[in-house]
Structures are given as structure tokens and as C-alpha cells.
Amino acid sequence: MALHDPSSERRERVLETATREFARRGYEHASLNSIIRACGMSKSSFYHFFDSKAALFETVVTEAMRLLGREIDVPAPRELAGPHFWEHVTRLVTELLELAGRGSWFAEAGKLFYSADSPVEHSPALRGAISSVRDWLDEALEVGRECGAVRDDLPSSLQASLVFAALRCLDDWSLHHLHEYSERERERIARAQLETLYRMLAREPGTAGNR
């Protein structure tokens, strides 16, 4: 039987509240006082967990990435190689879109990656997360090109930059809007997004339904 840990619960409440505050108002305009009041804490209790807004933001990003790893089994790029490349990609993108459509605090945390004033230059956690995603994508595209699933008529660096920009656009929109639609509409939009990626990248003409 797990022991009740009120300290851990308070910390989680602060992180969830802070995530929504950062997502709604941006990093610069987010108010620690508003977060503290919403959590029903004293300032001394808050500073027991986090000594600054920057430290709080870092923890939010780190925790979000940890939860992403727990929620979704992201394969190593080399595991995508072979005739089932697009099946693996479809599964991964579908799971990510489903997560974005839940409207949970985790989805709110995802918005921080696209906020205009997110402190990328001063946030090692945010820089590291973005770099990890880009490295994974670069290697996945290279695997796809090697196994014949991804077109290779563009320089690999240009293709990677185009796809990274497209995925950021799709992810940003999904995090902000996908939860506004019914489950049936979300499924339709998800299929359309997958079709868009497939048309951009597939070596041979076709449709997502024929993968």
C-alpha cells in the first residue's frame, strides 16, 4: 500500500497550475503570485519547492518530457527500418495526436514549446527537448531514405528542416485546437494530417490508407 505524500501532491498541483499559467499568459507575463494563490499556498511553502520562476519553468518542461516517455513508446529511429516504416510512423503520430486531443495539463505543457516568449535561450530543458526531437527526426528520415520509404530527391538537411517546420506547425495547431472537435472529427483531422505527411515524404505515390 502506497503511503500518502501530501508534499508530492502539493508539488504536482503547483506544476499543473504553473503549466496552465505559462500556456495562457506566456513566460514573461506569467505570475508567480497567481500560481501561489491558485494553489492555496503561502509564499514560503512555494519557495520550499521552487526558488524562482525560471526553476519552475524548467521543472514543468522536464516533467512534461518525462511523462511523454511514460505515455508513448517512442521507437529508436533504427527500429523504423524496413517495409513497415509507415505503419510505425502512423502509430506514433496517431498516439501523439490522441494525447494532444485530450486537453490535459500535459497538452497544455506542449504549448510551451510554441509560445513566442518561451525562454529557449535561457532554458536548458527546453533547448534539450527541442534538440532531442530534431535529432530523432533527422535519424528517422535518414532511415526512411535508406530503406526506400522516404523520397530522396531533396538534400537530407533541407528535407529535415522542411519536415521539422511542418511537424511543429501541425503539433502547435493540434495542441491549441484539436480538443475543440468531437472524437469523430479529431479522427478525421488526424487522418488528414497523416496524409499530408505521407504526401510530403513518401517515395512512391499513394495514400495513407494503402500503407
TrEMBL record:
PROSITE patterns, alphabetized: HTH_TETR_2
UniProt entry keywords in alphabetical sequence: DNA-binding, Transcription, Transcription regulation
DNA-binding residue intervals: 31-50
InterPro entries per the UniProt record, alphabetical: Homeodomain-like_sf, HTH-type_TetR-like_transc_reg, HTH_TetR
HTH tetR-type domain span: 8-68
First and last residue of the signal peptide: none
Transcription regulation is among the record's keywords: yes
SUPFAM superfamilies hit by this protein: Homeodomain-like (SSF46689)
GO MF term set: DNA-binding transcription factor activity; transcription cis-regulatory region binding
Pfam families (alphabetical): TetR_N
Protein name, entry field: TetR family transcriptional regulator
